[in-house]
Amino acid sequence: MNVIKLDLLLKQFFNEDIGDGDLSSEFLFSPNDLGSFTFFAKDDGIFCGEQIIMRGFRLLDPSIRIISCKRDGDTIRYGDTIAVINGPLPVLLTGERVILNLVQRMCAIATMAKRAMNETAGTAARVCDTRKTMPGLRMLDKYAVRVGGAFNHRSGLYDAIMLKDNHIAFAGGITRAVSLARARVGHTVKIEVEIETKAQLEEAIAAQADIIMFDNCSPETIKEWLPLVPEHIATEASGGITIDTIAAYAASGVAWISLGALTHSVEAFDISALVESKGAIQVGNS
Predict the structure, then answer these.
(1) Is 164 an annotated catalytic residue?
(2) What is the layout of strands, in order, in the sheet containing 161-163?
């Protein structure tokens, strides 16, 4: 993960929340009032967000002392200590919400990614994400997917060509759309074509697409059509797939399964902060 970009994001998020100052904390406490936060899990799953905690609090105050008890990718259980943060009360209170919001989302995504990978275990299929991420959080969302053991699809509109139904319709068909893209694209950029019918599949193969996406096709249909696809063309299933149906798609023999549910509808992982104030606990440096 790009920590330079991460710091810029954290500064933006803190500025949104803090504005001209944290009135609640600044009016109640001085920088000499010390205390400790202990972040602990109230869910079971996969931890993700160590750098959010480490860099987030230290952006607000470099003197903050942190013990990180969990590493990204670790399994966490209800009641597990995630981190202990020690320092001035105004800083702890000012940073808490933004940091927890991010970490709770990242843990939820990593946990969902792990669950999806478990559902496809024993098959050759790989699970990947989509662009259905929270605006402004794509780098973090996609990092959390990797921490959970799944894979990233394209990062944005800029690093791969995906010809969806509307692109194809405006271009006048799959053959012309692929031809126009191929004439201008560099040799390192893949061209993916979305298909829904057997005729479209055959046209995408003839047009020499690099990747063919079976969009809103059933596992049975995909299994039937896969023998038509040459080995050098990657295959992907997408559209309407859920954590409950992903195993059937994996069993179809498709190479990749893109799952929007990894990022677009996860429920925040539950993490709470236990507080000890008026006298800092010696937690050491990390």
Answers:
(1) yes
(2) 126-128, 256-258, 234-238, 211-215, 191-195, 161-163
List 132, 138, 182, 223, catalytic entry: 132
- Report the chain's terminal Cα–Cα distance, integer Å: 20
Give residue-wise pLDDT tens across range 140-158. Answer: 999 999 999 999 999 999 9
Active-site residue, 278 included: no
Secondary-structure class of domain 151-258 per CATH: alpha beta
Would residue 132 show up in a list of annotated catalytic residues for this protein?
A: yes
The domain segmentation of the chain, as residue ranges, is 3-112+267-277, 151-258
pTM over 0.70: yes
Nearest by Cα to 46 from 146, 155, 121: 146
**Phi, psi (rounded to 5 degrees) for 12:** -65, -45
Other beta carbons within 10 angstroms of residue 52's beta carbon come to 24
Catalytic pick from 164, 176, 198, 224? Answer: 164
Look up 97 and say whether it is catalytic.
yes
Q: Which one of the listed residues 72, 141, 215, 236 is annotated catalytic?
A: 215
pLDDT in tens, 226-283: 999 999 999 999 999 999 999 999 999 999 999 999 999 999 999 999 887 554 443 3
Amino acid identity of 17? D
Name the CATH superfamily for 3-112+267-277.
Answer: Quinolinate phosphoribosyl transferase, N-terminal domain (3.90.1170.20)
Supply angle C-alpha 81, 85, 90, rounded to 5: 135
Q: Are 85 and 36 in contact (CB under 8 A)?
A: yes
